[in-house]
## 1
Amino acid sequence: MLDTVVIPLLKIAVLVNAVLVAVTFLVLMERKVIAWAQSRLGPMRVGPYGILQAIADPIKLILKEDITPVKADRHVFTLAPIMSLVPALVVFAVVPFGPDPLYYIGDINVGLLFIISVTSIGVYGIILGGWASNSKYPLLASLRASAQLISYEIAVTMTLVSVILTTGTLSLVGIVEAQQESGIWFAFIQPVALVLIFIGGLAETNRAPFDLPEAETELTGGFHTEYSGMRFALFFLAEYANMIVISAIVVLMFFGGWLRPFPNIAFLGFLDLLPAWIWFVGKVFLFLYVFIWIRATLPRYRYDQLMSLGWKVLIPVAIGNLVVTGVFKVVF
Amino acid sequence: MTDDTKPGADAPGEAGGAVSEPAAGPAPDPPAAADAAPPKAAPPKPEPAAAARPKSEPAPPAKPAAAEAARQAPTAASAKPAAPEKPAKPAAAAKPAAAAKPRPKPKPKPPPEPPKGPPDPPPPEGMESPAAVAAVQEALPDAIEALSYWVGDWTLIVRRERLLDVLELLKTHEAAAFDYCSDVTATDWPPRERRFDLIYCLYSTRLRHRVRVKVRVGEDDAVESVTGLWPAANWLEREVFDQFGVNIVNHPDRRRILMPDEWQGHPQRKDYPLEGPGELLMENPQDWLRVRNLPDEAGTDREPGPDTEIE
Amino acid sequence: MTVPAPRVSTTQFDTNELVINMGPQHPSTHGVLRVVLRLDGERVLDADCVIGYIHRGVEKLCENRDWTHIVLLTDRMDYVAAATNNLGYVEAVEKLMQIEVPRRARYLRTVLAELQRIASHCLWLGTHAMDIGAMTVLLYAFRERELVLDLFEEFCGARLTYNSMRVGGLPLDVPPGWDRKVRSFCDLMEGKLDDYETLLTNNRIWLKRTRDVGVISAEEAIGLGLCGPPLRGSGVSRDLRKDEPNAAYEEFDFDIPLGTRGDTYDRYLIRMEEFRQSIRIVRQALDGLPEGPIMGKVPRLLKPPAGETYHAIESPKGELGYFLVSDGKSTNPYRFRVRPPSFCNLQGLKRLVRGHLVADVVALIGTIDIVLGEVDR
Amino acid sequence: MAEALLFYTLAALILGLGVMVVSARSAVHSVLFLVVNFLLVAVLYVTLNAEFVAVIQVLVYAGGIVVLYLFVVMLVNLKKAPERFSDPRRLARSGLLLGGVVLALIVVVVSSSLRAGMASEGTLSGFGTPFTSGNTEQLGWVLYTSYLIPFELASMLLLVAMIGAIVLAKRHLGD
Amino acid sequence: MLEITPLHYSLLSAALFMIGVIGVLVRRNVIIIFMSIELILNAVNINLVALSDQLQDLAGQVFVVFVIAVAAAEAAVGLGIIIAFYRNKETVNIDEIQIMRW
């Protein structure tokens, strides 16, 4: 009973809270990093160096009036943000933060597939949010978002297959262990796949330069134009949780998860003094930083350019990568 | 060309400033001007007419002005009886006296200034008109009502019926080549019979010179749209229609542009109340209702100014 | 609003056509412009601009103000290029009254106008880039614009609406040391321009978003009455600073950048080059700044002789024209008319956006660089 | 005990949502119920030790096909016109009747086969490929060996369907 | 009762199947009819997976994979037809879809 119910429930509670807190600080980090990139200071008023802004923001969102437009479909309007956030959190069930079973909730043998399939549910939140608002800009945005998500999902999944070919397992723990055995991060074995997944991940999380569904200068805020208060906060949480998910996947698959750099070189052993989960979280935040950095730098793609990039570049390259990987696998 | 008129305005002796660009402007000037020499005799004819106009005008204007003053007065007067009932709305407190006080003020408004017409001074004796103007004088002598020159700007005053002919010639003629319509605007001279001056500011991107074409139109005279020649005139003419109520016809999209579609009246007219119709209308709610119930003019029918409506 | 749509869909969403309102509350219509878009999917079939939301009747107001007071009102039209508006107006009055302006005043006016051009272009660059999604450029460009505003503040005490010119000259001379500050700003600005260009000019996404977007041929641009950078982007060499030089422009050496393709990218490059040319002009003007009075001989009470004139200058947005009529009797203009460049350029939007996507609409609104205060007046 | 509880809960939800799918007035609500229905069916698969199928169910059905439905529903927005049942009572009656017949048939078949001994205990015989809980690898193996030709045919079918859908939905060819 | 046998799954499957059939027969909206068909396919899949578990035979799961593939194909083509049809007739009511060509 303790092992099968209480401990996992405890772990879930801790993890969900950790993710939510991480998200609030991620928002602060984004504001700070972008501010520095733009020669500003960013939030400075709440707490020392604005650190408590991470708490003030959610409090503000929770306390704000939650408006439902008169013509909106009430139930769907409420359901959409939930449908958007839940898959983003569920994914963490199979993300291992360390080698020990203590650090993950479950390691299922189709872990990677599980992540792909659950994240594909997230699109409902966006579509339904846009539709239920009963407003034109959100509708356009949600159509954009769903087309974008579905297209890039294909590219990302195709690329994941080539990684799976290298590892021979779908279990995330297994993938990291495979990197430990080979003594090298897969980033060096599958560099093309890394780039593809990173680009696809940017697109799937609706981040710049692919932030078309919420391009505020075009669609006045995208699918959550009509949202406010807590329901908006849920969309917000979902977006940032998804960012963390994508970073986690990239780190697990290409950067050795919790492994230190060069896991098999003995004289770097002192690096193991840091606990495994710190390595993992550190790498994840490094990638989150890259996400933010890109947002501060690049302009936005246009919708048709985005689609043609997805279909005409990423997917063919992913297939090519898959074929090359397969050939190598057979030949060597 | 306009360039050589420039010095007068700004920097004497620096007329050749535009040398950086193809100096096509001044070059064709002398021959064209020579061509224009014979018809040069024409301007004197319209001159007296133009000169006579402003003189003859001062007389009639007095009447409408007086009429207007008279009209204003009744408004204020009619508003007064309404006042006792009104105070309830704006200032429920004990301010009926104070509320009534500001009203008399508009009455001793300074008497309307004597109205005037544009002077449109003719070019000085012996001055040669530029090639473009000369070309029009030669080709369409009957279309030109007058010719004016002032601080370096040439203005062709043309008959309303021949407006399009003149403009088309100006656009297509080799020596004119006015391919760019800088501005279309109007001026309102209420006492005059044809109260509006409609002004087209033209420019040639090739020869880099300017000319103004002016046409005098009455309140109900139809003016052909020039959007066919210069698509640029589209919005400019809409603005003239919106602000002055000049009856521009054959316009592809004749709607109000700056004012809301359901606006009554044309704000840039000289007889339009400066403070807008609002305050006058507020005086008497009945008037407000009446204006509200007027047929929606929305860019179709021109409405006389709101002041006449209120009365 | 009547939308000239033969078949406006009555259903809420139709597979064929969708009519959406962009503005007047939209983040990238630069104020209160409202564009009614008729869409097929995301493709724009037709666009109709609805303007007038901040129409204040400036022309009518000016007709009831003293000739001197009007300078103040011209500030409020193109409020990001107030000095240029002042310049156009005072020069028009000077032309009407045949007043000669001292050389030093003309030089300083040129400096002010060019600094204003830099400030206005900074604002354009920032918002244009922001519309296309490059948000950092916005902050960078505004950072430099602040410096220009500081310079103006030191000169006339105001940061936005300067009221910085008078008929016949300038209200006051520049403070001592001002020219040194302008010079150091010019040096700094040149470096910053390279920064902007690093972020944008060769950026692939920026190229994708602006190349071949909103292409317009020279003939069409002339016909539509475009002016300023949009016209020069199509390769028409028309810059009033060269063609009808005002202030002291004929004494300086500068180039007019011209585009070849007439697309958004060309217009972007032209404005980037205009930054540099402006800096060049400012430097020349400061180098040759003559000593002398800053006010010409002007009567205390301005009462131009009866007559009318049209005077146009090259504002950052294009041809800014003033058509003034004086009746010779009163101290007000009888007719005060502005030919607003933004208004005329905005007219071309309908033509530019046709066939493009919704995302391009914001890019195109950005590329024609409008200020609604000037469009609506 | 827990297993039974789980099954009954799932079964009740699946059936209830099925009814909602069929009876919802708004097509979008229908689609929503369908998604949840499919997710629950996926959970049911997990209880039946078919993890791979469960994941595929979520990925392809819930994440793909139903999104397509949602797309189409939004494109041909049906909110305005409530559906007209041309003769609701007759149709409902015939539907219920037919449904009842089908149900009866199935019950008969199932119970008779159960009586024949299938339900008695465990595995029926040695044929086929026995599997354990983590069966993804085996499933893949079987798919690419014994069922290679059907698999290829299925992918062919998908390709054809894809081309067909594009041709059908594209407004003007060569647009 | 507390022991879950294949019979339970079969009954669940049959009930879901019935719901699907009723949906097909009763509803007039083509899209909902399509969704009902998806329900029917799912009912079949439940049966297949349950029996696969019962018989310890992977063939059932393999068939489920095929069924899903076919369902995807069916949805793609069917919805393509609906879109094409809607564009011409502006309806998705099956009663109004009664001619083979227009």
## 2
Amino acid sequence: MSMLDVRNVGKRFGGLQALSDVNLSIAENTVHAIIGPNGAGKSTLLNCFVGKLIPDTGSVMFDGQSVLGRSPHEINQLGISRVFQTPEIFGDLTIMENMMIPCFAKRDGSFELNALSAISRQKDIIEHAEVVLEDMNMADKRDLTAATMSRGDKRRLEIGMCLCQDPKLLLLDEPTAGMARADTNKTIDLLQEIRDKRKVTIAIIEHDMHVVFSLAERITVLAQGSPLVEDTPENIKGHPKVREAYLGESV
Amino acid sequence: MFGLTKTDFNLLLIIAILVLLAPFLLNPFPEGSKLAQFNGGYPDLMQRFVIFGIFAIGFNILFGLTGYLSFGHAAFLGVGSYSAVWMFKLLSMNIIPAILLAVIVAGIFALVIGYVSLRRSGIYFSILTLAFAQMSFALAYSVLTPITGGETGLQLALDDPRVLGIQVTEQGNIPVPSLFGLEMRSSAELALGPWLFTFNVGYYVCALIMMASFYLAIRIFRSPFGMMLRAIKSNQQRLNYTGLNSRPYTLAAFVISGMYAGLAGGLMASMDPLAGAERMFWTASGEVVLMTILGGAGTLIGPVLGAGMIKYMENIISKINSAILHEWFYWLPAGLEDFMVAVVYPFIGKGWHLTLGIIFMAVVIFLPGGLVEGGQRLLNLIRRRKSSSAEPAKDNLTPPA
Amino acid sequence: MDAIILQIMNGLDKGSAYALIALGLTLIFGTLGVVNFAHGALFMIGAFCAVTLSRLLTLSHEVIDETRTDFLGNPLKVDVPYLYDFFGTDVGNVLIDWSVPLSIIFAFPIMIAFGVIMERGLIKHFYKRPHADQILVTFGLAIVLQEVIKYFFGANPIPTPAPAAFVGSFDFGALLGFNANQIIYPYWRLVYFLFAIIVIGVVFAFLHLTTFGMVVRAGMADRETVGLLGINIDRRFTIMFGLAAAVAGLAGVMYTPINSPNYHMGMDFLVLSFVVVVVGGMGSLSGAVLAGFLLGILQSFASMAIVIEMIPGINQVIIYLVAIIILLTRPRGLMGKKGVMEE
Amino acid sequence: MTKSHVTRRGILKSGTVAGAGLAVPTIFSATDASAFTNEPTGDSVVLGFNVPQTGPYADEGADELRAYELAVEHLNGEGDGGMMSTFSSKALSGNGILGKKVTYVTGDTQTKSDAARASAKSMIEKDGAIMITGGSSSGVAVAVQALCQEAGIIFMAGLTHSNDTTGKDKRANGFRHFFNSYMSGAALAPVLSAAYGNDRKAYHLTADYNWGYTTEEAITSSTEALGWETVNAVKTPLTETDFSAYIAPVLQSGADVLVLNHYGGNMVNSLTNAVQFGLRDKQVNGKNFEVVVPLYSRLMAKGAGANVKGIFGSTNWHWSLSDAGSQAFVKSFGTKYGFPPSQAAHTCYVQAILYADAVQRAGSFNPCAVVEALEGFEFDGMGNGPTLYRADDHQCFKDVLVVKGKENPSSEFDLLEIVEVTPVDQVIYPPDHPQFAGGALGTCNPGA
């Protein structure tokens, strides 16, 4: 059964056709990678999933419901969580607080005027956040201000924040960009664990083929705003069209 | 206690002690001494300290937590004052209905203005709030004169209906605001040697309400709601992609802080039953911004300190005139006396604006965290002297880590 | 019809003052990213440059006139400007009469220097600080500047008339075939309008036609990249601040005959000029100019007797009402760029 | 429950209670020894001078303060005595008030009613002031007057011209020496019709707040009574600085007189703008176009510079008056400060002397005694001829000056010349005149 169904999506920016006629289906409980050269429209496509952009044409269905016209927080409440290319966290807040906010969103919905009870009384939230912190291996840093962490840690925190919500679909935008090899491997391990243990459907944009082939079960190659091929990793490797798209070689 | 952590409770306790003992603390100099000029412990100024403290605490809930800089908050204070005075005119001189109406009307006003203004952020939001407040001022001063009293302000008259109270006192005067017969202006005095301390009913009413407001602010700061507001300031985009709708959060903060302003306005009218349109002028909105930043935005106690400092300058420094200066320096040789007076004179009395401007600049340049940061630095310095341990001191005034 | 033409002219004239002030404000914002609440004070300082020059020109020594008496019955002391001694009465009078236009030469270097000192001494330390801090420190500076001016010049407005040649008004109505006196406009206001157009033109030409200007515009768009090219963008920004100060200052100089300058004239314009800048779109030069003229014209229309009769109080709130409507329908003002000042 | 709502600071200041040790803190049940607010018990008495020290009227406030300092000198027997020697009442003898040395405190009204009240309150509560005086706008005067009524303090208004101060907002504890909008209209109209004829069409620009409304009403009604027609009356915002948009359409309206019901900065700017438009060089309806400014002050004339030349207006007092009182005051003030006093200085000086005299005559500082002494008080020698402090509304009735901007001023203070001294009979009105309707004086409040 498909978790996310993208039909005939097109998006234009002025004179530039960023996406045209994109059809894509992400199956439940798979890791689906979207790759392609720079400017292929990967991030634009992702932005159409989370309400940051509204496509000019086509439809995006998630779990049987259209996401178009919904605002980001509504889409998130449907079950889509996103990790950004540059980590988006609450830099002025502590790591624990960063973890707690998605827990609140999960428990209370998009708005709850909970203005009088102390945070320390929210036992269930604290417990939930602590478990995820433990999973992310960050329990010892819980009281640090988030902005002071390394980029790798910020990324892990952001992934952890998404996991707090037990999303149905996790969108990852270049999660290892700018990471050292060791950190990248750690991230791969983490994501594999998420895939295996938590049964979360994952869509990932990635340049690093090592990451892609370690994780993905399906791969869509995007070039110049439309899907070139979609197949298993084995078949994508050495696919002539892919080579052409990446290297500009004609076959 | 009261659902607060130990640190917060201590902070509340400190505030309570400061506020309750203010009549002593603000009058450190004996009557008749040269320094008595600097005493601030008379009812009107003490009332102003706590009333503007409430205003600034409320403003800080919006600005300090969410980072939304409203440049029109004085409008809510003005609307609160007008509501309260109308209550005195129509219903009775009891301050309870007046203050309640002030808070409610200011809240509704804030809801409407906030709903529109919060569609934009950053400086666009600031300008929208400024525009609404300036419109309120301009209309209140001119075409709305029948409702607001215009230039002279809305004041009580002998022929007001006051359906639940007396129209005129036995002596033929307008009755004064009271709390079930306890007049706001009543005072008792305590003379200790040359010292004189005044205890005013109105001040203690304001002080109790201010402590309640401060307590409420602590609860808000420490609540999930407060955390969400800080998250909005930190990264609104992340909040939205985390499934939270920032708009109702900011609107709630806006309305709450508007109600604080209304409360301050209602109290102001209760202490002195006249409401002038200048209270809504943009400089009045600017003043509360300055109070908050001067004290330390986002800290609990900062805005209260900032409010106190500015009101002290306005009321004490502005009253020093050249005759008093000559009195200070009378012991110097004649030439030197004149020289000293000439040097100091531009900064006091009618020059108090200059001193205010210089202090703002100095604080912003050297203490970006406001007076609270200054206090912390001082504290750290002392601690470092005491123990050579290099462990950085934890600040207990800013929201806890 | 004639009433409408008149109010459009009025609006253009009012708008030219708004546009000049807003231009400098948005230039500082666009190049340096600084919200300058002291900009109104720069306008005021410019006006007081004109006052100072006229004071300098009329520096006098006293001559006792035995034939007349002063209010206490003593012989009247008459002030005779030193200029009369140097150049004779006729030339002296011409110089004094033309003191406002002469002030342009006097004020330009002063304002540039003032702007540069202000940027190097204060503003540059605030580039990385939050906008709230910038607002506060420049607001503090504005208070200090106006109090200093008040200390030396008093609180009362100081009349600073235009040269006698510009007194009176021009009858446009006669030109357009209306009856005499139907559409008249003061000469000095026409001069002000032309002056504003020229200054705006020069600023635009400077930014678009010179290499210096192009680098600055590139810097406005992307500061880091230009910095990477090895261009000393900081120095250029300092000069831009000086230039913006000079634009505000000259606007102030030329404004003095229209309204007698006083120490708080800057504050009077401050809120208005921010509204203009925001309506135009923060950091957009053409937006500021457009919004200046637009608000000037709308304000003029709102002050027509017939309009006030229809909507009482409209003249009190028109500027703010327009600002609200524009900001709600065009989120970033008329010509603003996305992402500027929204955090 | 007592009403000990003000402090007895005066007592301690004078030192009589100093060192009394621990007084029993009789909280909220204190029996107050004094009969009225801030009863002075020592050998000195405190007056509160509440004038604008910041804001646009700061210079006017400074002049008021100079006058008060002079009055204090004279009351304490220093200086040349000024108008005390020409004053018809001889109760004061230069040894303070009732033998108590006069001291004073100053405050800043900022020309805002809130700030003015805060400043007055601090004088009453902190400094033990027995009387508050000063101010440069009607908004402030009305606000402070109401406060003084409530606190049981006498208020001697400074410069306030709105009818409301002694009309709908009058208070028993408040007194006004300055003239008002009605008197301006009554004095100006005959002079205007004599100079410009009875067949005139007037266009009013009016400051959009209380004072503007009362002034417009006063001028229109008294000029219309003489045959003038009011073509239009347009309200202008207080915060307006450029009046071009209001002045430009004046000629199109067919009006031949422009009346500027503006004060302070508004007046300086609107007059400057009107002259810029060349209105005064125009011919309309076969007549010279004229501009009128109902209320003049010297500082405004100074701000407008050469633009005031030949423009009619009214004023409360002018230093060029030749009566003995005015001469004495000008001499005394001019000798001390080097320039002649303004009308604001004059009214403030007179108010301070009148208060002191009333206390002296009453033999008590009790506000009710002072009110009684001032009500219906007739005096002379204070610069405006024989004057009556009317009991019904606490307004002074005296001659009003119609002035004109001088063509050839000999100094920066010599900007206005007196055209006519309108006798008091022409400007008096019944207390229930419609322009003063509403409001009640109430009864005097001694506080305490």
